């Protein structure tokens, strides 16, 4: 009986070796030096992609810990896409749902997602927009047009502040929502929002005028002068930050 491994078996064995070169056995007949070249190519490709997409995480980890993280990702995660440009997507999925290492920073998955969103916002397809200068009255009486590329984000950790001088061990009691968007100059920006500003953006995104959105927030006809002024200021701030870029009729 022929007990030689089939071609498919050899492929699987070689793939297992590429993913776990320290522990897996190289299939019979494969040259170790040549196989090592493939191992290096695989690791370097992942390293190149992930260090570019996750620069904060890369800067916070020692070289040894970064290598260990990448090697564990390559060994343990089953990628669902064959596309190189989607490796960062897979890395975020791995951190969110698979990695369970007690020595990891507790904010690692949130920080990775935050850095990943920046990439998604930068490459999202959209027509270019020109921000128009609008008076507050127009923002109230018409339907504000929001930046076409944007995402409202919520995290347990203050991801915008995390860096070498800010490595929290416990999540704060409250963390403000973050709006990620691409402005009229095609630059990705992140702004921390109050809960009221986040609610206002959601209402404006439903096609309400500024006045209607403020009425919905206040639960009345907006006769509260103090609240109306507060809401008007929020609309002006969003416009000045390039979140509101235009208006359209009701």
What would you say this structure looks like, in words?
This protein is mainly α and 250 residues long. It has 10 helices and 5 strands, in the order αααααααββββαααβ. It has helices at 7-19, 32-53, 55-60, 63-76, 87-97, 108-123, 136-141, 195-205, 210-218, 225-240; strands at residues 143-146, 150-153, 178-182, 188-192, 244-248. The protein has a 3-stranded antiparallel beta sheet with strand order 2-3-4, covered by helices on one side. It has a two-stranded antiparallel sheet with strand order 1-5. Strand 3 (178-182) and strand 4 (188-192) form a beta hairpin. Helix 8 crosses helix 9 (210-218). The longest helix has 22 residues, at 32-53. The radius of gyration is 25 Å and the shape is elongated. The mean pLDDT is 89.
How is this fold's topology laid out?
Elements: H1 7-19, H2 32-53, H3 55-60, H4 63-76, H5 87-97, H6 108-123, H7 136-141, E1 143-146, E2 150-153, E3 178-182, E4 188-192, H8 195-205, H9 210-218, H10 225-240, E5 244-248
Antiparallel strand pairs: 1-5, 2-3, 3-4
Helix pairs in contact: 5-6, 8-9
The averaged pLDDT comes out at 89
What is the H/E string?
A: HHHHHHHEEEEHHHE
Biggest sheet character: 3 strands, antiparallel
What's the total count of β strands? 5
List low-pLDDT spans: none
Number of helices: 10
Radius of gyration: 25 Å
Termini separation comes to: 80 Å
Determine the fraction of residues in helical runs and give it as a percent range: 40-55%
Helix-strand category: mainly alpha
| Morphology call | elongated
Spatial order of the strands in the main sheet? Answer: 2-3-4
